[in-house]
C-alpha cells in the first residue's frame, strides 16, 4: 500500500466503493459522490464474534476490482479475503476465509442505507442487496486435505445499483 494513501477505491460509471485505510472493516458506496449505503464487516469463529479493529489489512487494485485481505493468528492462521468489483448494474463482493483447523466461520458486511427514502431522486438512486452463501460453511469438513488450508467459508454479496431499497438481506 502506498505511503499516505487514505482510501482504496474502485468505481463504475457514477458509482464508487471506498474502503478507508483508517477503518478497513467499513466500506461506503457512493453515487455521484453521495453516500448510498455503509457496511461494516462482521466475523465470527465458532459463534464467537471477533474484533477486526487491530487487523493489518492489505489492498491490491487490479483492473476494475479491489482486493482486501489479511491473515489472523488464532492458534493457526486464518486467511480472509474480499474482492469488490462492479458488474453492469451491481457491486459484487466475494468473500473467502480459510483455516487449517475445523471452524465454523461467518463473514459478511452489515449494511445500512444512508439515503432516506423520501430524499431519493434521479441523482440519488436506491441500493438493494442480496447475500448468498456458496455452500455450507462446514462442507469442507467432509473432504480430507493434505495442503495447508481448508476452505472454510465462501459467500457473495450483490448490491443492486439503482434499485428500490430492500432493507432485508435475503439468504
UniProtKB/TrEMBL annotation:
Name of this chain's protein: Uncharacterized protein
Originating species: Photobacterium halotolerans
Lineage of the species this protein comes from: Bacteria, Pseudomonadati, Pseudomonadota, Gammaproteobacteria, Vibrionales
Amino acid at each position: 500500500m502506498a505511503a499516505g494513501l487514505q482510501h482504496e477505491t474502485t468505481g463504475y460509471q457514477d458509482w464508487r466503493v471506498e474502503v478507508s485505510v483508517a477503518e478497513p472493516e467499513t466500506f461506503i458506496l457512493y453515487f455521484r459522490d453521495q453516500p448510498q449505503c455503509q457496511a461494516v464487516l462482521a466475523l465470527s469463529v465458532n459463534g464467537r464474534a471477533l474484533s477486526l479493529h487491530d487487523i493489518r489489512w492489505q489492498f491490491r487494485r487490479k483492473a476494475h476490482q479491489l482486493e482486501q485481505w489479511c491473515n489472523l493468528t488464532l492458534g493457526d492462521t486464518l486467511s480472509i479475503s474480499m474482492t469488490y468489483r462492479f458488474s453492469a448494474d451491481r457491486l459484487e463482493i466475494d468473500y473467502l476465509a480459510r483455516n487449517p483447523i475445523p471452524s465454523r466461520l461467518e463473514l459478511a458486511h452489515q449494511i445500512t442505507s444512508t439515503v432516506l427514502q423520501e430524499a431519493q431522486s434521479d441523482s440519488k438512486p436506491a441500493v438493494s442487496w442480496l447475500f448468498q452463501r456458496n455452500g455450507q460453511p462446514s462442507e469442507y469438513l467432509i473432504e480430507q486435505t493434505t495442503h495447508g488450508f481448508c476452505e472454510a467459508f465462501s459467500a457473495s454479496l450483490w448490491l443492486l445499483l439503482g434499485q428500490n431499497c430492500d432493507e432485508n438481506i435475503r439468504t
